[in-house]
Amino acid sequence: MIQLAIIGPTASGKSDLAIKVAKKTNAYILSIDSLSIYKEIDIVSAKPSKEELQEVKHFGIDVLCPNEYFSVDIFIQLYKEVMHKCQDDAKNLIIVGGTSFYLKMLVDGLSNIPKIDDAVKKRVEKKLLNLQESYDFLCTQDGEYMKNIAPNDRYRIEKALLIYEASSLTPSEWFRQNPPKPVIENLPIYNIDVERDVLRERIKKRTQKMFKSGLIDEVCRLEQRYTRLSHSMNSIGIVEVLEYLDGKVTKDEMCENISTHTAQLAKRQQTFNRTQFESVIHAPLDTLEAMLLHN
Q: What are the chain's domains?
């Protein structure tokens, strides 16, 4: 079974290239995109069209509702399920997307957590009734681990408590004793290089296309159905539309803000892709296309 990853900043042409490579190599596609995982967030996430999704079987798209929690743990489990599916169907796998952090976790791995029984779960549930008290307790026990966790981050506070209650070790000590193991090894990674000016123009055009495709209506439906409390509602493209709906900006300013914030995200993605992986092939889109399709 052949596996490879195609990464790059938003609007760099990753999805189109992945579909071409998948067709040539008899592969399925696994999306690593933190928004495409959600149903109903279609325009904002710029997920592949229905026609493209029919051309090649995709995974990691339309998996969760916008008010459901998504994490690295969930993604790694999804990857394992997709890998088994590929093996069963005699298919290769193309991993593609802009959220390269998930790819890094596949390559670097996650530490195992201790076995958690019902008694531990009940103790933790009781303690979580007072979230601030639980947070303060963990800070006194393990300031090193808690320094990057907010007092209202219930998910991560719960995870830390579960580790502590199940193992009698602080999270930092648990992870020192249980270092991560790679989920996938020797994965070829191809990163699309794009000049900043070219990327900005692509982002601007894509923003206009999103607007004409019904961006505002999509965000209105999402807000009506899921409110603004869901983590997914804090995404670029949604926040700016909500500002427009609140009367804080004009439509033109809304589109300009989406383009600007997306370009800033793309810059962060480019930096991450260049610094966080040990062995990556960096090249422009046409060079990578020739390399992957004509070898």
A: 3-109+182-293 (3.40.50.300), 118-177 (1.10.20)
Residue written as tokens 């999704």?
Answer: 53
Q: Give me 281's structure tokens.
A: 């092939």
The answer to whether the CB of 207 falls within 8 A of the CB of 263 is no
Residue-by-residue pLDDT tens, the chain, 295 positions? 999 999 999 999 999 999 999 999 999 999 999 999 999 999 999 999 889 999 999 999 999 999 998 888 889 999 999 999 999 999 999 999 999 999 999 999 888 889 999 999 999 999 999 999 999 999 999 999 999 899 999 989 999 999 999 999 999 999 999 998 899 989 999 999 999 999 999 999 999 999 999 999 999 999 999 999 998 999 999 999 999 999 999 999 999 999 999 999 999 999 999 999 988 999 999 999 999 998 6
Residue pair 123/31 in contact by the 8 Å Cβ criterion: no
Can you read off the two tokens belonging to residue 20?
């071409």
Quick one: which of 195, 173, 216 has its CA closest to 266? 195
Please return the burial class of 237, using the count of CB atoms within 10 Å of its CB with bins 0-12, 13-18 and 19+.
Answer: buried
- As a whole number of angstroms, the distance between CA 120 and CA 76 comes to 24
Partnered with residue 179 across adjacent β-strands are none
Residues contacting residue 209 through CB under 8 Å, at least 6 positions apart: none
The owner of tokens 């390559």 is: 107
Do residues 18 and 97 lie in contact, with contact meaning Cβ atoms separated by under 8 Å?
A: no
- Identity (one letter) of the amino acid at 124? V
